[in-house]
TrEMBL record, chain A:
It is a peripheral membrane protein. Belongs to the adaptor complexes medium subunit family. GO terms for cellular component: clathrin adaptor complex; clathrin-coated pit; plasma membrane. InterPro entries: Adaptor_comp_med_subunit (IPR050431), AP2_Mu_C_sf (IPR036168), AP2_Mu_N (IPR043532), AP_mu_sigma_su (IPR022775), Clathrin_mu (IPR001392), Clathrin_mu_CS (IPR018240), Longin-like_dom_sf (IPR011012), MHD (IPR028565). GO terms for biological process: endocytosis; intracellular protein transport. It comes from Ceriporiopsis subvermispora (strain B). Keywords: Cell membrane, Coated pit, Endocytosis, Membrane, Protein transport, Transport. Its main location: membrane. Residues 169-423 form the MHD domain. It comes from the Eukaryota. It is found in: Cell membrane; Membrane, Coated pit. It holds the Pfam family Clat_adaptor_s. This is MHD domain-containing protein.
UniProtKB/TrEMBL annotation, chain B:
InterPro entries: AP_beta, AP_complex_bsu_1_2_4, ARM-like, ARM-type_fold, Clathrin/coatomer_adapt-like_N. Residues 10-534 form the Clathrin/coatomer adaptor adaptin-like N-terminal domain. It is found in: Endomembrane system. This is AP complex subunit beta. The lineage of its organism: Eukaryota, Fungi, Dikarya, Basidiomycota, Agaricomycotina. Residues 705-717 have a biased composition (Low complexity).
Length: 424, 724
């Protein structure tokens, strides 16, 4: 299992070093610095030297590194690294060199709690926050009672929830966030279109509520009601550990006791009938060797009551571009030489609209003509109250001993960031 | 707080020592923080040991943790002084606060000082039976720590038996940690050569594990799944039961749980005879595997490597899912390369058009390595699907017309493979290939084109002219090109004796007199003698019919594949090689594999063992890299290789591996071997012995993986020639 855990900065300086097992020495960190940090051509996230393996994940300007000496579970090690990052993020906002340096005492406390002898332990953020805090905890008699409660929770069957939660107003917020992945060929055919959905929940519910959650899942609806047409086919679902997997497996009901506060209830994937919220129609012509002309049209493909916001279109230009002049009816377009793209930012596009950018790029003449690889056009956007998969939350039922009324809120968001690509 | 990392001042330790003994609590705590900060950056603060120790007795949990952290680091260097801490530790394990009790027992296990161990046993005994589950789960792992330090003590105190009882604990987290501890001890015991099984999974334990599986934390589930994988079920009913209980875990959000469940199902499915059930399990496995691709790139890569293995065993798992493996422009290279390999595996008649247009797209990207692999993938598709071969050739022709040097060269290499699979089919392409003769500067591409010219000498009008160019520069070429030129000229002479007599004379002369490679020289002598004694025999040898190549369905030997599948998702299954090859010395070495082999094993098992053994032996020989920390301290830099290159550059291991494979056409794997990290398999020796003409004609250009080291492989096939 994990023998050591390190955090390096960009220069390869050790910020955090914790050896969990004794089969390694601290100086192993030097080996990583030489092999990975100062090596410009690292082509694998795992480096094995002799019998020592380095697993590294890059987070902002940091390397989060786990070292093993055995035939370690690779998926588990990476999941652990990412979990650490998530925990750190929730504790001190962002994870970068400065925050790690400022919070190193807390980080040591955390990594000792979430890993013992190389085996990951309870890493539920909500629970951790009850006993690893930024203020110091005094071991007074009152605390004893409290910590008994904490420890039972940290190991219990519902390790993610305290039993004594109280709220005046019982509320649950459900956010359905869908990320659309699209690859469209130059001819306009869809090569790949699928949706990665996340259902995030914020539960502010008293006691130990038993929740039941219903979607317009095709498999459920076909069984119960015939002829319902708006059902969605989910290719795969993955759940937070609070969801009873065996129940889902047998009857596809999603039932659980939620953690207190914010958590990701489920993730799903859908590939059939994906409604693409935006269409991009590019016409790019190379005029001789010194000019490229662009006409890029963005069309919205949803009801005019909704609108797409924060739209960012990135249009690649050849490497030898000197200047680009753009004309846009809406938003701002600017050539960014460092990335070789024209960035076109549109704050808002109403449903059913279409807008067109026309631009002309001037190229310098080069001695040897290099073929331009034409990377795809990439578009980021957000559309509120729209799901590309057509998914709808049908119900969220909350049952609790005290039988209180609870208020539920549902929000939908479809977005793309770096994965909505159109070739030209 | 960043001031803790201020540059060192003169006598900093002295100041810290004063602060540590300050009468103000806050000042002392700040001093401890500074000490820890210094420790992290590698400064020696061991001299402050007694001062830090004084601060151990405190009500402030945070401070206590800091002092403990310091102790864990320096206890080994100050064994005498650690004794002073024992009292506080033992007292803490009796504290009324369970967090304090757990903290004390956790830290004691990490101290690793001989002196303190003896004091550990009693508190540990107590904590294992603590009524708080948090303390119990911490104590369970502490037993594993103790075993690592002093196994005798664990045995003497009967801790292993206690652990075995704890599997029945009511708390799932305690069960999970107990399983982890027992597995850890089990592995250590096996590595130490203990014959006694520490952790046998009996049917009773099995049921307890299956119950705990649904309740414990994600990490605990991984441990339990690993244990389930080790269980040997007596009949198919039980195997079915295990699979059914594990299937829901495929829906878990944590990738390691999903892959762990896949492993258990793959293992226990071997015993399931019902065709229907097997199909059902496979069907349920597919969507979660695809979902793994929406993870961060590192996890994706691990998943892809494992999917690659799974596909070798079960071709049908993801048959309709090729599109999800299309590369995104911004995927990291290691992910793209794996996706390519998987796409070729999934290619079939129904999706080949989509695949080809995708591969063509990739061939215009920027990264040279990726472009080359994409072109190679086109060739593999052509060889895999007969019906699509023509479309593939057309795509290759389009690529050649781009006239980008590396694209053309790779396309030529790929065309040669296509000619081998479909002899005399696409001769119309040859003029285009020959037109690009001047563009070629890489040995492999040159050798490939020369092979094509030699092979179709009688259909190319100006073959003598073309070959003449290479004969003129013969001595400047690299050996593979020389060998190929030699063979091609002889082929030309045998097919069109008129007009090429001078060429053959001059090349044989140059090769025997001016060439410093013994391989080239020897081959020239053989040809010379053959031609001068019996031209008929020469024809039979040099122009002999070669078997067509095919795309291997697996890149590892079948026995090894089974072994690797039961290792999902560990490093072994990511690297596609047995753990013994990279986990050196300690744990399971070659010796123990041999030992296990000598004991009685069922037939299929022993085959696996044998395969492992040979590969391990091969790797062990190479494993000089297995550096000590000492060597690193000395500043000796281990000449490590990135994971992707490790395998390709170990022909020794590959040689051995090919010996264990039963596929007679294994030499062809070498063509494709370099695509992934799988071992490269050189030509089968048997093939060469069958008729000594065959290596002459087949081996040199055909089997040269781009990334591997050609000289060694060359030698292995050409040695045989030297015998004659």
């Amino acid at each position: 299992m994990i023998s050591a855990f390190f955090i390096f900065n960009q220069k390869g300086e050790v910020l955090i070093s914790r050896l969990y097992r004794t089969d390694l020495k601290r100086s192993i960190a030097d080996v990583f610095r030489i092999q990975v940090v100062s090596n410009s051509d690292v082509r694998s996230p795992i480096i094995t030297l002799g019998s020592t393996s380095f697993f590294h994940v890059r987070v902002n300007n940091l390397y989060v590194v786990a070292v093993t000496k055995c035939n370690a579970n690779a998926a588990l090690v990476f999941e652990f690294c990412y979990r650490f990052t998530a925990i750190a993020k929730s504790y001190f906002g962002k994870v970068d060199e400065e925050s790690v340096k400022n919070n190193f005492v807390l980080i040591y406390e955390l990594i000792d709690e979430i890993n013992d002898f190389g085996y990951p332990q309870n890493s539920e953020i909500d629970t951790l926050k009850t006993y690893i805090t930024t203020e110091s905890v005094m071991s007074s008699p009152i605390a004893v009672e409290e910590s008994t409660k904490i420890t039972t929770q940290a190991t219990g069957a519902t390790s993610w929830r305290r039993g004594d939660v109280r709220y005046k107003k019982n509320e649950a917020f459900v956010d359905v966030v869908e990320t659309v992945n699209l690859s469209m060929s130059a001819k306009g055919t869809v090569l790949r279109a699928d949706v990665d959905g996340h259902i995030l929940m914020r539960a502010y519910l008293t006691g130990t509520p038993e929740c039941k959650f219903g979607l317009n899942d095709k498999l459920v609806i076909d069984k119960n009601e015939r002829g319902a047409s708006d059902a969605v086919e989910l290719d795969d679902c993955r759940f937070h550990q609070c969801v009873r997997l065996d129940e889902f497996d047998s009857s596809r009901t999603i039932s659980f006791i939620p953690p207190d506060g914010e958590f990701e209830l489920m993730r799903y994937r859908s590939t059939s009938n994906v409604k693409l919220p935006l269409r991009v129609i590019p016409t790019v012509t190379e005029i001789g060797t010194t000019q490229v002309s662009y006409v890029v049209t963005v069309k919205t493909n949803f009801s005019n009551k909704l609108s797409a916001t924060n739209v960012v279109v990135r249009i690649p230009t050849p490497l030898n571009t000197t200047s680009v002049d753009c004309k846009v009816p809406n938003g701002k377009a600017k050539y960014v030489p460092a990335e070789n793209v024209v960035v076109w930012k549109i704050p808002r596009i109403q449903g059913g609209q279409e807008i067109t950018l026309s631009a002309n790029a001037q190229l310098t003449s080069t001695t040897h003509r290099q073929v331009w690889a034409r990377p795809p056009i990439d578009i980021d956007f957000q559309v509120l109250m729209f799901t590309a998969s057509g998914l709808i939350v049908r119900f969220l039922k909350v049952f609790e001993k005290s039988n209180y009324q609870s208020i539920k809120w549902v929000r939908y968001l479809t977005k793309a960031s770096g994965s909505y690509q159109i070739r030209f | 707080m960043s001031s803790f990392r201020a540059p060192p001042r003169k006598g900093e330790n002295f100041e810290l020592s004063a602060d540590l003994n300050s009468e103000y609590r806050e000042k002392r705590k700040d001093a401890i923080k500074k000490v820890i900060a210094n420790m992290t950056v590698g400064k020696d603060v061991s001299g402050l040991f007694p001062d830090v120790l004084k601060n151990m007795q405190t009500d402030d949990l945070e401070q206590k943790k800091l002092v403990y952290l310091y102790l864990m680091n320096y206890a080994k260097t100050q064994p005498e002084l650690v004794i002073l801490a024992v009292n506080t530790f033992v007292k803490d394990t009796d504290d009324s606060n369970p967090l304090v009790r757990a903290l004390a027992i956790r830290t004691m296990g990490c101290l690793r000082a001989e002196k303190i161990i003896d004091y550990l046993c009693d508190p540990l005994q107590k904590c294992l039976r603590d009524d708080n589950p948090y303390v119990r789960k911490t104590a369970a792992l502490c037993v594993a720590k103790l075993y690592d330090l002093k196994p005798e003590l664990v045995v003497e105190n009967g801790f292993v038996e206690t652990l075995q009882e704890m599997i029945a604990d009511s708390n799932p987290m305690v069960v999970a940690n107990t399983v982890a501890a027992l597995t850890d001890i089990h592995i250590a015991a096996v590595a130490a050569g203990s014959s006694q099984e520490v952790f046998v999974i009996t049917p009773t334990i099995l049921n307890k594990l299956l119950v705990a599986l649904n309740e414990c934390s994600e990490w605990g589930r991984v441990e339990i799944l690993t244990a389930l994988a080790r269980y040997e079920s007596p009949d198919d009913r039980e195997s079915e039961h295990i699979c059914e209980r594990v299937v829901p875990q495929l829906q878990h959000a944590n990738a390691s749980v999903v892959l762990g469940a896949v492993k258990v199902i793959m293992i226990h499915m071997r015993n399931v005879h019902s065709e229907n059930l097997t199909k059902q399990f496979i069907r349920k496995m597919a969507p979660p595997l695809v979902t793994l691709l929406s993870n961060p790139p590192e996890v994706q890569w691990v998943a892809l490597r494992n999917i690659n293995l799974l596909l070798q065993k079960r071709h049908d798992i993801l048959s309709n899912e090729m599109r999800v493996f299309f590369c995104k422009y911004n995927d990291p290279l290691y992910v793209k390369v794996e996706k390519l390999d998987i796409m070729v595996r999934l290619a079939g008649e129904n999706n080949v058009d989509a695949l080809l247009s995708e591969l063509k797209e990739y061939a215009s990207e920027v990264d040279v390595d990726f472009v080359r692999r994409s072109i190679k993938a086109i060739g593999q598709t052509a060889i895999k699907i007969d019906e699509a071969a023509e479309r593939c050739v057309n795509v290759l022709l389009e690529l050649i017309n781009t006239r980008v040097s590396y694209v053309v060269q790779e396309a030529v290499v790929v065309m040669k493979d296509i000619f081998r699979k479909y002899p005399s089919t696409y001769e119309g392409v040859i003029p285009t290939l020959c037109a690009n003769l001047d563009e070629l500067d890489e040995p492999e591409a040159k050798a490939s084109l020369i092979w094509i010219i030699g092979e179709y000498a009688n259909k190319i009008d100006n073959a003598d002219e073309l070959l003449g160019i290479f004969v003129d520069t013969f001595t400047e070429e690299s050996y593979p090109v020389q060998l190929q030129t030699l063979t091609a000229v002889v082929k030309l002479y045998l097919q069109k004796p008129e007009g090429s007599q001078g060429l053959v004379q001059s090349i044989l002369n140059t090769a025997t007199k001016d060439c410093d490679s013994p391989d080239v020289r020897d081959r020239a002598y053989i040809y010379w003698r053959l031609l001068s004694t019996d031209p008929g025999a020469a024809k039979a040898v040099v122009l002999s019919h070669r078997p067509p190549i095919s795309l291997p369905r697996t890149t590892v030997a079948p026995a090894l594949l089974e072994e690797l599948l039961s290792e999902i998702p560990t490093l072994a299954s990511v690297y596609h090689k047995p753990a013994e090859t990279f986990v050196g010395r300690g744990r399971i070495g070659v010796d123990s594999v041999q030992q296990r082999n000598s004991s009685e094993l069922p037939d299929d098992r022993s085959a696996t063992q044998k395969a492992l053994q040979t590969v391990a032996a091969g790797r062990q020989a190479e494993n000089l890299l297995d550096f000590d920390d000492v060597s690193a301290e000395d500043g000796q830099q281990p000449s490590g290789l990135a994971a992707t290159t490790v395998l390709a550059s170990t022909p020794a291991a590959a040689n051995l591996l090919s010996g264990t494979s039963s596929n007679p056409l294994d030499d062809l794997v070498s063509i494709f071997g370099s695509v992934s990290m799988t071992p490269v398999q050189p030509p089968q020796p048997a093939n060469a012995l069958g008729g000594f003409g065959s290596p002459v004609a087949t081996s040199p250009p055909v089997g040269l993986p781009a990334a591997a080291s050609p000289p060694v492989q060359q030698a292995s096939s050409n040695d045989l020639l030297g015998l004659f």
